[in-house]
What we know:
Layout: H1 9-15, E1 24-25, E2 28-29, H2 33-38, H3 50-56, E3 66-78, E4 81-88, E5 91-98, E6 104-114, E7 120-136, E8 155-171, E9 176-192, E10 200-201, E11 208-209, E12 213-230, E13 235-242, E14 246-247, E15 250-255, E16 267-272, E17 278-286, E18 292-302, H4 309-313, E19 318-328, E20 333-342, E21 363-372, E22 377-397, E23 400-424
Amino acid sequence: MQRKGLIPLLAAALLLATPAVWAGNGHNLHGIGAVNSSMGGAGVALPIDTLGSLLLNPALLAGMEGSHFAFSAEYNQAKNAVESTVQTPVGPFSGRTNEAGDRAVIPAFGFVHHDRGSNFAYGTGFLGLAGFGADYPQDSTNPILAPQPRGFGRVFSNYQLLKVPTVLSWQLSDAFSFGLSLNAAYATLTANPAGFASPDCSGPQGPCFVPSVNGDSAWGYGLGVGIRYKLTPTWSLGASYSTKTKFQEFQWNSAVANPNLPTFGTARKIRLHLDMPAQTIVGLGWTPNDRLAVALDGKLINYEKTAGFGDVLGFKDIKVGEIGLQYKVTDHLAVRGGYNKSQNPIPDNRTFFTIETPAIFKTHYTGGIGYKVSDVLTLDAAYYHVQENTITGPIFGPTGPVPGASVTTRMAMDSVVVTFNFGLRQ
């Protein structure tokens, strides 16, 4: 995907990360920063965290007094594999290949300001929010990774998305706040081979070769709106909606990949339109005292009507349930825990087409701590584990599913998040 341009410093920092895959709800991280991540991504009704507020609900900024800065980094390790089986004259031929990708380092930065007594707050962020990727070596013992045209050969992909929200928030009454967000986004994608492109085939029965593309980038824009309503002094309702983020069309200069064609090696243009899906979040926050906070959220991510995800990759809409809690053991120490349950957006029959776009995580167990180092600085840390999930579907040839052939993707992940939170009360 390809549009060149000047990249801001923080966007460049994101692009220095080299993830194998990012764990989340679909291709989104389940949370941003140590506080939000350790609470399972929940918190659309709780204004307790800079990065979480910028991500979940622009109305939350009106509930945060003073100036707040947050710097965060997430370090994750994927544990993934692809397996495949085909029938041969001498019986089934099967193989398994484990993920060979690098570990990921995902940065995030956020700033929020709200003057004491004012009904207006604002903020901005640079949030490493979404991505997917794979790095499987060519493997002649695994049919799906056998050299082309028998298989895909080496499979490598890397998609990264940086969200840059600019947020305005108003406290319209003692109970009700409202917020707006202008969401810019910057994405990059590399795919080898480019499974979303039409293959170069010698005839109706093949053989077929799939072209490759190098890294490209695109900008996108969308909007967000949110509300928070205090039902009682201890219960709050929060809701937000982020529109689809529409991106420029990504374009690559590639070449015809089939050596059996007279056009082999000649120039070929490949295009893909890949937007960010719309998302709806509704949740409750419960703060019975100044030490305990509990959040319960539900999300709907609309992949089916999103260009690239719905029409090319075949992703389905998903629902996500999240619960998180924070308890302040002392004035300096807080402990957190959470649970995140997501539907898988990739149907089994799309397994073959999504080896490069793994996004099948379902169950997240999360936890973390926060320690108030001084009146200004709080250090937060989180850990989460994503249970292994698998999908299995048919292998497709030029004329459709290949009888007796199947492919399976396996995915699991562990991740650590560290965030430096700075707060200046006014």
